[in-house]
From TrEMBL:
Cofactor dependency: Mg(2+); Mn(2+)
Organism: Paramesorhizobium deserti
Subunit structure: Homooctamer.
Binding-site residues for NADP(+), renumbered to this chain: V83, L84, G85, L86, G87, N88, I89, G90
Tagged with keyword Metal-binding: yes
Keywords recorded for this protein, A-Z: Metal-binding, Multifunctional enzyme, NADP, Oxidoreductase
Domain Malic enzyme N-terminal, chain residue ranges per copy: 25-158
Active site: K101
Family, similarity comment: In the C-terminal section; belongs to the phosphate acetyltransferase and butyryltransferase family. In the N-terminal section; belongs to the malic enzymes family.
Residues reported in the UniProt entry to bind a divalent metal cation: E143, D144, D169, N294
GO BP: any one term: malate metabolic process
Name of the protein in question: Malic enzyme
Amino acid sequence: MSKTDKPALSDFEEAALFFHRYPKPGKLEIQSTKSLGNQRDLALAYSPGVAAPCLAIRDDASTAAEYTARSNLVAVVSNGTAVLGLGNIGPLASKPVMEGKAVLFKKFADIDVFDIEIDAMEINRIVDVVAALEPTFGGINLEDIKAPECFEVEEQLRAKMKIPVFHDDQHGTAIIVAAAILNGLELAGKDIASAKIVASGAGAAALACLNLLVTLGAKRENIWICDIEGVVYEGRTALMDRWKAVYAQKTDARVLADVIGGADVFLGLSAAGVLKPELLKQMADKPLIMALANPTPEIMPEEARQARADAMICTGRSDFPNQVNNVLCFPYIFRGALDVGAMAINEEMKLAAVKAIAALAREEPSDVAARAYSGETPTFGPDYLIPSPFDQRLILRIAPAVARAAMETGVATRPIEDMEAYLDKLNRFVFRSGLIMKPVFTAARSAEKKRVIYADGEDERVLRAAQVVIEEGVAIPTLIGRPQVVETRLKRYGLKIRAGTDFELINPEDDPRYRDYVELFLKYTGRQGVTPETARTIVRTNSTAIAALAVMRDEADAMICGLEGRFERHLRLVGQIIGKSGGLRDFSALSLLISQRGTLFLTDTYVTVDPDAEEIAEMTILAANEIRRFGIEPKAALLSHSNFGSKDSESAEKMRRATAILSERHPDLEVDGEMHGDAALSQALRDRVFPASRLTGEANLLVFPNLDAANITLNVVKSVTDALHVGPILLGAARPAHILTPSVTSRGIVNMTALAVVEASQRLDTEKQL
Ligand SMILES: NC(=O)C1=CN([C@@H]2O[C@H](COP(=O)(O)OP(=O)(O)OC[C@H]3O[C@@H](n4cnc5c(N)ncnc54)[C@H](OP(=O)(O)O)[C@@H]3O)[C@@H](O)[C@H]2O)C=CC1
Ligand SMILES: CC(=O)C(=O)O
Ligand SMILES: [Mg+2]
């Protein structure tokens, strides 16, 4: 076909080309992990400083893991001979796929990758090229190299190299396929030892899957293979090799239709459209159809479903349920292997990964996984045999299991000494808030259990958070919500907690305490123009009011609300019912931003529009006390457009007065102002304009002159730096109460719960400190 005869591209294909081309061609770039800001940095990074690590590594090769990026660096190597289901398109054309694998490694497991496309087709040449790369890498991921060459290549490289060599299309696929088959057979009530498995494709992926299934108990005599030549039978000579021959059957059957009858599993790792709907009718009860060819499966799910309503169907694609794709495995098996400096990825490590993936599908789905599926949240069943690729728990389950298996089988050169610390590290990668929140969670878990009441008890995020809060022993939740709605949603989201046994439920439409709540509400608000009629309506319809009343009746130690509606309306109720801590002028809000650069607290991001100097001083102290709960000593900067007296505007003067109040009343607090935002974050800048500043290093608490400045900064920084927001943390309430925002995630609710628990257990006497 000449260039001009090319078929028109679909919108999706056009979008894919645009995506790859802009704003920079490709999907990868190299980033430096050290700043090279001055002459000295250059001297350290390069000549002459670089000689020191070179010589250290010459004398002790293991130190390469300390002085270079090697231990976290994987080569994704392909010669382009079996690229997805596109076939032999050559090494250069395979580069987008290899760049793709690289970004998946980075995104899902923080592993750095060089994609290496090699123009090498013969086994010996591939082996020579790859083996010569050993000094550069901590591991080798072979990709899209066709069978049978790939088997020989991998065998030889594994024998030659002392780092893991893993052919992803074989073993990554086999691990995830095995996990899906174990779960699928269990759901169908079948035993792997008697299951009939019919495979289409006898290439890298299919043979590795079958080998692993045999290790897991499948019987060779129950396995049938068809490839492009038809059935693999004893005596066949065309397109045979010793790896395929292992599965040759003594039979007269010659095509797929001859062997599919009574099959429990169809394993397609071949090409588009190979499985015709009429063949499905001959399969056993509740058949498992794994149509895994990419990008177009052996049969489209809707066709398969039409032919067999009882079938469980998997594809390799992300636009259907049950995505069986090696992306669920390769980032995490390498994470575990690299973290122990494994010399190989052995059978035990692979089996550990299979078990971890199969078990994870049976846990409650995470909220992120739930969001990855639009609509219904999946729970373990025919449409959810394996976890979603976006399930953040994949790394938390697979990597430690693999690392442990490596240590137990003696292939780990750097065994993990403290498994708990390792899990913490993985958790921090998944939940960026992990590190800074750790002291808060530790304190919450070790405190006497506190009861936290959630106004939005019917919200999916609250239900998920409640499950975590109970599992992690952070608090005892009380939810406000209609029992029927809560019950239905818990089931729909696959959550195991139940009202009555795991948490208390307050039904706003029918609770025996209703009259008491109304009476108490009138006690607080009767003199503020609230009539008994209004009070009854509010207590029946407003769950924030109920939560606040429950806290005041000592039925809960802390409350969380605000997932719907406006902040100010919730604050008004909290103010009316719970009120401010004695002596305080106002509430204020503290926001914690967690970004790549570090953590920063900002105040007042939600409450007082234009605080005066006294209020600024008050919110600074409240914020400083809160920050200490994180195990951090506050360093406060009072911000302004003026830098240490450079301007005389009213707001600059206000911040100067607030600084003076703080210095006088709280000499122990490290605070200074008024100053520019950049001066707050740089000692060098301050030294230039005001070397006598009381602030040292970087401020961790930024106090703004008004609500506009604080709230705008919060939202802009959050968006520009992709920072995570913990908060708003309401300061100044007489009892712990937090009003979250509609964009909060369930992890955010868990974080705020832990904080509320700590506040409840160590209620600081803020009045005394002011
Ligand atoms: N979902 C996932 O995670 C993964 C999916 N795959 C998919 O599996 C497929 C195979 O990949 P891989 O094993 O690496 O490639 P290989 O080239 O090693 O193997 C392909 C196999 O499919 C066979 N085949 C090709 N066309 C047909 C056909 N029409 N009928 C029956 N068999 C056929 C080939 O037969 P012969 O040797 O006789 O030519 C060969 O045995 C690809 O579509 C790939 O995208 C692969 C890895 C992971
Ligand atoms: C997913 C994958 O590796 C493949 O289709 O080749
Ligand atoms: Mg592949």
